[in-house]
Every structure is written in structure tokens, then in C-alpha cells.
Amino acid sequence: MRKIFITILLLTGMCTLANASPFKDAKKGCKSGDAAQCTALGTLYIEGGVGKVHPGKAAKSFLKACELGDAGGCYNMGTLYRAGFGVSQDYDMALQSYHKACDNNYANGCHDIAVMYGTGTGVVRDYEKSLSYFEKACDAGSAKDCDDVGSAYMAGYNVGRNVSKAAPAFKKACDGGLLSGCVHVGNMYSGGLGFRRDDRKAEQAYIKACDGGNDDGCVGLGDVYAIDNGAIQDEAKAMEVFSKLCDKGNGDGCVKLGVMYEAGKGVRSDKDKALQLYRKACAAENEYGCKYASEIGG
User: Assign residue 196 a region: left if phi > 0, alpha if psi is -120 to 50, beta otherwise?
Assistant: First the structure.
């Protein structure tokens, strides 16, 4: 059950009790009808912040918080019902609690309803309903759920491929600060999928991801600079991006830099240098690095 403790702790933002004051404040506030303090009290009970774990008392606190209208309390109550921790396991009650949270724009409640429908946990499996609740979680501000919605529509996971729906979902993920969402936005713009092709907008999305430390964003950025006859083709910039990636041990960066050396793009053709780069990529377990090294190095 440790996973449950951690999940609830992170969602409520509470820390382990360092002294008696937080517990006293939460208990007093909950008794006076403060919904948020009831959720805080439940968290202290479930996380052991009062000296030991009290799952039953946590459940009572979360239930009161939910009844008083706190979406976080409803979500945590649903988690306890779903796991059968502090209360008897009851999927119907879990779903009801999650619905109360979701209806109050609490993204995690919507997410867990989606998971239950997607896995058939306590309900008949229904992929369309599952996706609809992932979309609700996205609309409630969960960037990760937006990215997952976009990925589902792109791949057509049980719902049919729909790039026109994938593209805006990825954009919401990127706007919400999820770097992988920005990579996907760059891919959509550079490929003309769901958006009109726009290399400059692709560049912006890739830069956001790359500057945030996402190597896939850097690879995409290098690619958009390296595209022949692209609107922003700049082989020198492409080489700079791929060089930085390769220097940090990224196999894709080494392969792409090797391709440029082998083809003489942005630099004098140098097959020995290309082979060196392919071998470096291969050492990083990049299959294309191994393949290309074998083709030109024997």
C-alpha cells in the first residue's frame, strides 16, 4: 500500500508531520467544517504523520472533506475505495468519488475514471469512455493527459486515427509545459499533420523542448534545419545541434552528424569521420549507428 500513501501525499502537497501543530490545526479546522483541512488531516493519517498510519481515520477525514466539497478529498477517498485501504474495497464507490472530483475539475479524478474504463476495473471496459475522461483530465489542466490523448488519436488506439484531434491535444500538452508534448507539436508542424506545415512553428516547438533538456526535441530541431529545401534550412545549425547531442552521448545525434559528414552536407565529405561517429552511436546501442558503420566500414 506504500504506493497509495505516496500518491495521496503528492496530490495534497502535505509533508510528514515535524511537530504537533499541523495535526492540531488540521483536526481543529476539519472539526469546524473546513474541507481543505479535512483533506490535510486525512493525509497526515494516511502518511503516518501522527506517529503511525491510521487508514480508517484517514478514510473518515477524506469522506468528510468530500462531503464538504473538497475535490482532493473526493479523489483520495476514491483511491481508498479502489484499493480497499481503510474501507472495504468498493469499485462503485471509488467511481462515484472520482466522479465528484472530476466534476469539480480535478484532473486526477478524471484520469482515474479513464483508467478504470480503459482497464475494465470494476466496470465494463469501454475505450471510448476511457478516452473521453482522459480528454476531461486534459481540459482540467493535466498536460500529461493531453499528451496521452494526442498519442491515442495519432496511433488510433481503439478509437481510430484522427490527426486533427491529436494536434490540438499535443499543443495543450506543450502549452502546459510538457516537453514531450512540444516534441509532438514540432513533429506535427514539420510533417503537416493536423496543422498546415510550418517549419518555423516546428522550430519554435523543438527549441522549447530542446532548451528544456529533451533530447528528442534537439533531434527534431536538427532535422528541421537539415531538411533539403526547407523553409529554415541551415546545415551549419543542424551540425551544431547534432554535435552537441553526440558530445553528450546521444546515439541519434551521432548518427545524424555522421550522415552529414558522409554526404558532405554543411561540411566537406569525410567518410572516416562518419565511420567514427557511426561507431560511437553503435557503442551507445543505436541500431542505425551499427548498421551504417557496418555498411561503410566493413
Answer: beta
Cβ proximity of 289 and 280 under 8 Å: yes
Q: Is the distance from CB of 258 to CB of 281 less than 8 angstroms? A: yes
Can you tell me the distance from the alpha carbon of 79 to that of 39, in angstroms, rounded to the nearest whole number?
Answer: 13
**Mean pLDDT of the region 153-178:** 94
Residue 290 φ/ψ, nearest 5 degrees: -65, -45
Q: How many domains does the chain have?
A: 3
pTM of the predicted structure, to 2 decimals: 0.86
Contacts of 192 (CB under 8 A, 6+ apart): none
Last residue of a domain, one of 134, 157, 174: 134
Q: Is the pLDDT of residue 2 over 60?
A: no
Q: Could you give the CA distance from residue 262 to residue 279 in angstroms, rounded to a whole number?
A: 13
Name the residue range of residue 271's domain.
Answer: 234-298
37 shares a domain with 17: yes
User: Are residues 180 and 127 both part of a single domain?
Assistant: no
Would the CA dihedral through 101, 60, 87, 10 be positive or negative? positive
Q: Which residue has the cell 482515474?
A: 112
Rounded-to-integer distance, Cα 134 and Cα 115, Å: 8
Contact in structure between 290 and 251 (CB atoms under 8 Å)? no
C-alpha cell at 189: 508542424
The reported pLDDT for the residue numbered 20 is: 60
Q: How many CB atoms lie within 10 A of CB 86?
A: 25
Dmax (CA) for the chain in angstroms is 78
